[in-house]
Amino acid sequence: MDDLTLDKLALRELIDNWAIWRDAGFWEKFRTVWHDDGRMMATWTQGTADEFIEMNRQGWAKGVSILHFLGGFTCEIAGNRAVTQTKMTISQRGEVHGVLVDVVCTGRFFDFLEKRDGRWGMCLRQPIYEKDRMDPIAPGAVVDLDPEVLNAYPVGYRHLAYLQSQVGYPVKKDMPGLKGPEVDHLYATGEAWLAGNPITWSGHSWG
Hints:
Layout: H1 3-24, H2 27-31, E1 34-41, E2 46-48, H3 49-62, E3 65-78, E4 81-96, E5 99-116, E6 119-136, H4 147-150, H5 158-167, H6 181-194, E7 199-201, E8 204-206
Parallel strand pairs: 1-6
Antiparallel strand pairs: 1-2, 3-4, 4-5, 5-6, 7-8
C-alpha cells in the first residue's frame, strides 16, 4: 500500500482506539492516542488530554455512564497534518428529576492530528453536536423538563446538557452544531491547520 493509504488506516485506527479505550476505562492506552499538548473539548469539560483523562477516571469511579459509537469516517491529509471527521453518537445514562433516562446525541468528531516522529497523535478533538433526544428507561415513565433550562442550550445538545447540568457539570453553551457561525469557524480552523498554521481555538493557540 502507498503511504497515503497507510496514513488513512493509521488515523482510522487511532479514532477507533479513542472510543474503545475510553469507554472501557483503559486509561493508559487511551493516553497514547494524544500528543502531549493535545486538548479535548467536551460539553462538560474542556482542557488538556491529561485533565480530560483524570476527569473521566473520577466520573468512572462515581458511576457516570457515557458511551460512544462511531460511524462513517473521512480525512484530509497535508504532509504531517490531518483533519478527520467521524460520525458518532454519545449515549449517557443518568437521573433527571428522579427519573432514570438515556440521552443519545448524534454528531461528528472533528479532530486535528499531527504525525510526530513517525506517530500520528491527536492535537485537538472538537465534537459537532447535531441533534439529541432523551428517553426514560422504565416503560411509561415521564420526565418533566424545565423548558427554560432546556432552551438555554443549543438545539444540537440541549437534552445532553440538561442531564449533565443535573449531574453537576458546568456545560459549555457555544459548542458547534450542524449549522451556524461556530461550526463555520471550526471548518475554517481545520483548513488553516492543514495549510500549516497553528490551531487557534477557544482561547488557546498551539501547533
